[in-house]
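Before the break, one more example. Copy the sequence into your notebook; we will annotate it together after we see the structure.
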Amino acid sequence: MKDNLWNKMTNVPTLTLGRSIGYWEISGDELAQEAMLIEAAKKDTKKFKVLYQKYFKQIFQFIFNRVGEYELTSDLSSQVFLNALTNLSKYKHQKLPFSAWLFRIAINEVNQFYRKNTKQRKVVLDENLIQELKMAKPDENLEYFKEKLSNILQQLSPKEIQIIELRYFTDSSFQDISQILNISESAAKVRVHRLIKKIKELWK
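Here is what the structure looks like once it is written out:
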């Protein structure tokens, strides 16, 4: 039954790929409304379509930044929402956007894909990360800088890449990162700062 419902829901929306912003801008009232929608979807899976439409682009963009292929991103994104729909009854609202849970599922799906495949991990460079690091290297050619940064990012572990992407590709605050990865906010700050330091050290 869920498979039939899912087939009706998975038309991929028209997307303009690029950096999306405002992932976490959700008010207390919106959180309350979302909580009610989730509870309604638990009773009637057809209502999950609203959550799918609301968050698909964010999840799609996040995964695309990890794999760099449109069709593969479509497949993995669909799997994220199918997993979410299948496990919706287990979801407990904790005054966080539903997207926090979806991002956890997306991270797991991408990591699982790379564990099963020999493809090299891809990281789509983000302008904010480029600018932050470029300030420390003002005299380098931009194209050379991007190429070198891409090579350095490939040396990072999947968990390190996750933090870089959450911080710079999804506009996640340190609090957002702590919620998605189930760590403290101070730990999130430390990890980001250590990673930036590590990238700069690898540059030498």
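The longest helix spans residues 48-67. The chain is about 70% helix and 0% strand. Try to locate both features in your own notes.
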